[in-house]
Design goal:
Layout: E1 35-43, E2 46-56, E3 69-74, E4 77-80, E5 83-89, E6 93-99, E7 121-127, E8 137-144, E9 147-153, E10 168-172, E11 175-178, E12 182-183, E13 189-190, E14 193-198, E15 205-212, E16 221-224, E17 227-228, E18 231-236, E19 239-244, E20 250-251, E21 253-256, E22 261-263, E23 268-269, E24 284-287, E25 292-295, E26 299-300, E27 306-307, E28 310-315, E29 322-329, E30 338-341, E31 344-345, E32 349-353, E33 356-361, E34 367-368, E35 370-373, E36 378-380, E37 385-386, E38 401-404, E39 409-412, E40 416-417, E41 423-424, E42 427-432, E43 439-446, E44 455-458, E45 461-462, E46 466-470, E47 473-478, E48 484-485, E49 487-490, E50 495-497, E51 502-503, E52 518-521, E53 526-529, E54 533-534, E55 540-541, E56 544-548, E57 551-552, E58 556-563, E59 572-575, E60 578-579, E61 581-587, E62 590-595, E63 600-608, E64 611-622, E65 643-646, E66 649-652, E67 656-657, E68 663-665, E69 680-689, E70 695-712, E71 718-723, E72 728-733, E73 736-745, E74 748-759, E75 763-767, E76 770-774, E77 778-785, E78 796-807, E79 813-821, E80 828-835, ...
Parallel strand pairs: 7-9, 57-64
Antiparallel strand pairs: 1-2, 2-3, 3-4, 5-6, 6-7, 8-9, 10-11, 12-13, 14-15, 15-19, 16-17, 16-21, 18-19, 20-23, 21-22, 24-25, 26-27, 28-29, 29-33, 30-31, 30-35, 32-33, 34-37, 35-36, 38-39, 40-41, 42-43, 43-47, 44-45, 44-49, 46-47, 48-51, 49-50, 52-53, 54-55, 56-58, 58-62, 59-60, 59-63, 61-62, ...
Helix pairs in contact: 2-4
Length: about 1100
């Protein structure tokens, strides 16, 4: 129910503002009433007042976080109505809903007459009523328990309808508030006024609108009768200039900006224009409404000045005049017309029909205009009247005829005939032809009246030798030709064309053009060959294979280069024993196909129909790129700070390097450039305190150089050698330089380019489809070799490089070298040559770009076959980089670094020890001489010899104990090989008895012969090598060397016995000697023990 008595308090704001109220309206609830109360009457003596206030303005979890909290104020407490829940829109009102989150255990909503303030759902409903007085009234109703509806009615909440945007600034009391440019209930009218109009003619033009345009919209348009003016300009606030389109009558004027508009009360009046020339009366009437002539059917034109006829052609007369004709369209010609030819009036004119007029033309000459007129309107023909002369044609072929100028007829002599004497008075009955090679022919006919100096043409060719044999026969010399030809006899002015053709006799083609490769042109007797053959009879094949791309052993797609013409569906390609499948021809010089697995060099056979070409050993299966075998991790890869152990081996952490990560990259300055050849010298100075606490200066020098190229056969035997002599230097930048040289082999010049690049920091680069990591302070050699003339496609080219390192110290030092495979995943070989604790480390990638294709190559240590100079203070090594046969170019990419680590302890080390503590021979001799003073030396020496032998055995045993492990090279020779791709047995024989071998206690060598039976294509044998650690040999065949430098020979013993007779004091002398000898032995053993901790001693 509605409460009658309501009290409205403390209104100091509006409840809300409305923007386009509809079901999608956006409601802004701020600003809201600060405070108001609604008196709801009394029930059972209880008075209820509802107080509302704005508690806070915060984001809500509903409605995308927009809304406010409204609070209820009851007595002195403020209670929240809850969070804004939603808004429901109806046609004329909207409903705002709040839900309370508070509960009250004291009250519930079960009683009809109780008022619950905590737990409820409250609705506020705002209703717009345009007809309600301009006051604010709040009605409250309670349709059921815990549900309150608040109805708000006021003009302030009413919206304006259909306000034109953007010209409406606001809405007040249901009325649109317009901007200064517009007016009207909805701001639909522009706020301007037209008081006068300056009109144009019906053809349009420039007009003016006069009035009040002080508040006109900037971007306005003007429409005259619904048509937009092409141009409008505001001259001033009282005048607008417009470009008016053509029109008639009175038209409306509208000015608009596309949204609001102004409709002028004054109309635009088009002014009429009179017709020109009075429309050629009586042929036309003037339409004064349009100012346009309306012509009759006999005329046309804007003023009806042209007759409505047309001349298409004219039949002229001779210069003597006469009857002529005009042809065209004369359907609407006027009855009384005249015809003028030039300035002369035709005296007799007749309209024969609607398309022809006959005229009688007066004599005249030249070209004349034709004009048809009725005196008011006229027609001038675009075609001229041409007076025709009547001379004789061709001047009667002088001198054979004379022209009768009166009749225009020729009188010919007896040698010619025809209207113009153009034909010779002869006749041909038959022709005896020749072959296509030409020769003598004969023309038979009637030549009684032939002129003396005549010529004969066969086709377009003049016969050189022509004889009139008699009145019926002419002999001619015919040039070569083909086909059928016209025969023409002429003297120049007149001629005779034979009705009988001269036929060249065809010659058959050679070999019938080698069908199906050619077609015979029977007219020429010449073959037209296809793209695969040439020759007179297409007997020669043009196809050839120049080259073919190799694949790895797995096969794949290959490309054949050469010339193949347009191949047919019969094309067949075979590589070795494998058919090439999926053959596709790209053009006449390129074919691709897919080949299966294989190995080595193969013959290539290409056949298309009856044409065949075979090239031996043209295709090559190259060895697939492989990865290095997994390595064992040594020394725990240097610990977690130096490397980690992976399945492939040690992976080192920069700056550590090597298979055990125990070597460290030395950061050094960029070495100086050698301008004469691509050699790099890297000096490194080191100053340390030695074991005697003395400053020791050491200078290490590393040298990298390129020695030569050599061609090897399939057994790696050298065939040709190409040492490098002169180099051309080019500096690219501060870190890169380039050297170029060349040499000639078998008539082909091969260019060699070496690019040296220094890396100051760690850098990644791509080579042969693999990312390679360059270490800091390293130098990379990029060697490019152009086309090389191989003696055989089975041969290989080997580049030899030399690396060395030395130090200026000669004692207490060791050198060593290693060559093997890396373990860090770059699948390369490495060379490490070491002196003391410094090494030159070279990495040789096991791949190269061969003819732009990444392929495997071999890196081989050549020290055994080269003249190397190794010592404890110097180490050098030769590396051969072997690449297989190639066609265009190879690119290889080794690099080098300087390392520091522990001194080598390999069994292959070369060491230099300090022997200052050894006894010299002089000392021993002095002691021996003292033996002359004792006769009892015999027995003493016997006792001493016994203990000396025992002592030697102890020394040897102790050395063996310290050297319990030795490295032994083991060679395993498999007793089978792949012979022509088939596994077969072979024999391995030791050849030491027939070879010049050199064996000693410190050196052992052996020769092995691997014998294979006869084969056709290739053999593959596969020995392998291992290094084993075993106990020292105790075989009866062993060769041993013991230290007997301090033993007594028989001569010495005899001398001592003789001398012993001279003094009994020898006993004491020998005792002293034995004391120092034992001390000397202990020093030797101690020094051996000391050196064995880091180095290897060789006896």
């Amino acid at each position: 129910m509605f409460i009658e008595n309501c009290l409205f308090l403390n209104v100091n704001g509006s409840i809300c503002s409305f923007n386009y109220p509809n079901k999608n309206s956006v409601i802004n609830l701020e600003p809201i009433f600060n405070l108001y109360s609604v008196y709801m009457g009394s029930t059972a003596g209880f008075r209820s007042d509802i107080y509302f206030d704005l508690c806070k303005n915060t984001s809500l979890p509903v409605c995308n976080g927009n809304g406010i909290n409204v609070c209820q104020k009851f007595s002195n407490e403020m209670h929240s109505l809850g969070s804004f829940y939603n808004i429901t829109f109806n046609n004329n009102d909207f409903l705002i809903r709040y839900e309370s989150s508070n509960t009250d255990s004291k009250q519930n909503c079960s009683s009809q007459n109780t008022y619950e303030i905590y737990k409820r759902v409250t609705y506020f409903q705002f209703i717009c009523n345009r007809n309600f007085p301009n006051i604010t009234v709040v009605y409250a109703s309670e349709p059921k328990v815990c549900l309150y509806e608040i109805h708000m009615e006021s003009k302030y909440f009413c919206d304006c309808e259909n306000c034109v945007q953007p010209h409406t600034s606001s809405c007040y009391n249901g009325k649109c508030q317009c901007n200064p440019y517009t007016t009207g209930e909805t701001c639909e009218q522009l706020n301007i006024k037209i008081t006068n109009v300056v009109s144009t003619s019906i053809n349009g033009g420039i007009g003016y609108l006069i009035g009040d345009f002080a508040l006109i919209i900037p971007n306005f348009e003007v429409y005259i009768g619904g048509i937009q003016c092409g141009y409008r300009k505001l001259i001033d606030l009282t005048k607008i200039e417009i470009s008016v389109p053509g029109g008639i009558g009175n038209q409306s004027i509208i000015i608009t900006d596309g949204i609001s508009s102004y409709h002028s009360p004054i109309l635009f009046e088009y002014i009429f224009v009179p017709c020109q020339s009075d429309c050629s009366q009586p042929h036309g009437n003037c339409d004064i409404l349009f100012g346009v002539c309306s012509c009759d059917s006999q005329t046309n034109g804007s003023n009806c000045e042209f007759l409505n006829i047309k001349i298409d052609s004219i039949i002229s007369t001779t210069i003597n005049g006469g009857v002529g004709y005009l042809n065209g369209d004369f359907q609407f010609i006027t009855p009384n017309f005249n015809v003028f030819v030039g300035e002369k009036l035709c005296t007799d004119v007749e309209l024969v029909n609607a398309s022809t007029i006959r005229i009688l033309v007066l004599p005249d000459n030249g070209f004349k205009k034709v004009n048809i007129t009725d005196g008011i309107s006229s027609y001038v023909s675009p075609i001229l009247f041409e007076y025709i002369n009547v001379p004789c044609l061709y001047n009667c072929s002088q001198p054979h005829g004379e022209c009768n100028l009166f009749f225009g007829v020729c009188t010919c002599d007896n040698q010619t005939i025809g209207d113009d004497c153009e034909f010779l008075n002869i006749k041909i009955h038959s022709i005896k032809s020749t072959s296509i090679n030409g020769g003598f022919g004969f023309i038979n006919g009637d030549f009684q009246y032939i002129i003396p100096n005549f010529k004969v043409f066969v086709g377009e060719t003049l016969c050189k030798d022509v004889k009139l044999l008699n009145d019926t026969t002419i002999e001619i010399s015919v040039p070569p030709g083909v086909g059928f030809k016209n025969v023409t006899i002429t003297d120049g002015p007149s001629s005779y064309l034979s009705p009988i053709l001269f036929e060249y006799i065809n010659i058959p083609c050679l070999f019938n053009c080698s069908q199906p490769h050619g077609e015979c042109n029977l007219l020429l007797g010449v073959c037209t060959c296809d793209t695969q053959t040439n020759g007179t009879g297409c007997e020669n094949s043009r196809i050839y294979i120049d080259s073919i791309d190799p694949t790895d052993g797995n096969g794949g797609t290959t490309y054949l280069y050469g010339y193949f013409g347009n191949t047919t569906s019969n094309l067949y390609i075979k590589i070795g024993d494998n058919n090439c499948n999926n053959i596709q021809q790209t053009n006449e010089t390129l074919i691709k196909c897919d080949i299966g697995v294989g190995s080595g060099f193969k013959d290539v056979l290409l056949q298309d129909r009856d044409l065949q070409i075979k090239v031996e050993n043209l295709f090559q299966y190259f060895v697939p790129i492989t990865t290095n075998k997994p390595k064992q991790c040594f020394n725990e890869c240097g610990g977690p700070n130096q490397g980690i152990c992976l399945s492939s081996g040690c992976s080192c952490i920069l700056p550590w390097i090597g298979n055990d990560c125990m070597s460290k990259i030395v950061i050094i300055p960029q070495p100086s450039t050698n301008y004469s050849n691509p050699s790099t010298e890297i000096p490194l100075f080191e100053s340390i305190n030695n074991t005697n606490n003395e400053i020791e200066n050491k200078l290490f020098i590393s040298l990298i150089s390129i020695i030569k190229l050599r061609e090897l056969d399939f057994n790696s035997k050298e065939l040709n050698s190409f040492p490098f002599k002169e180099w051309e230097f080019n500096k690219i930048n501060s870190e890169t330089s380039q050297f170029k040289t060349n040499f000639t082999n078998l008539g082909l010049t091969t260019n060699v380019t070496v690019t040296l690049q220094w890396f100051n920091k760690e850098t990644d680069f791509e080579f042969s489809n693999q990312i390679i990591k360059m270490n800091p302070s390293s130098i990379k050699y990029t060697i490019e070799i152009s086309e090389f003339k191989f003696s055989s496609k089975l041969n290989q080219l080997q580049l030899i490089m030399k690396a060395s390192i030395s130090v200026n110290k000669t004692i207490e030092i060791c050198s060593d070298k290693e060559f093997g495979e890396t373990s860090n995943g770059d699948d390369s070989n490495y060379l490490k040559i070491q002196v003391d604790n410094h090494s030159l480390y070279g990495r040789f990638i096991k791949r190269a770009l061969i003819d732009s294709i990444p392929r495997s190559i071999d890196n081989v240590q050549l020290d055994s076959s080269m003249n190397i100079v190794d010592s404890a203070s110097q180490s050098q090594s030769f590396i051969g980089i072997s690449v297989p046969y190639f066609k265009k170019e190879i690119i290889i990419d080794p690099d080098f670094s300087i390392l520091v680590g522990s001194p080598s302890n390999s069994v292959n080390s070369i060491c230099s020890l300090n022997d200052s503590s050894n006894f010299s021979k002089t000392k021993i001799s002095a002691i021996v001489i003292c033996g002359f003073f004792g006769i009892v030396t015999i027995s003493t020496i016997a006792i001493y010899s016994y203990y000396k032998k025992k002592h030697d055995r102890n020394v040897i045993n102790e050395i063996r104990l310290k050297l319990t492990t030795k490295q032994v090279d083991i060679l395993i020779f498999i007793k089978r090989a792949l012979i022509d791709s088939t596994p077969r047995s072979i024999e391995n024989v030791q050849l030491d008895s027939s070879m010049n071998i050199v064996d000693s206690a410190s050196q052992s060598q052996s020769f092995i012969g691997i014998s294979v039976p006869y084969f056709k294509n290739e053999i593959i044998i596969d020995p392998d090598f291992s290094i084993l650690v075993v106990s020292p040999s105790n075989s009866v065949n062993s060769i041993c060397s013991l230290n007997d430098s301090d033993g007594f020979s028989k001569t010495k013993i005899t001398a001592i016995v003789i001398c012993g007779f001279f003094g009994i004091v020898t006993v004491s002398t020998i005792a002293i000697y034995s004391y120092y000898k034992k001390k000397h032995d202990r020093n030797i053993i101690h020094e051996i023990r000391l050196k064995l901790t880091t180095k290897q001693v060789y006896n």
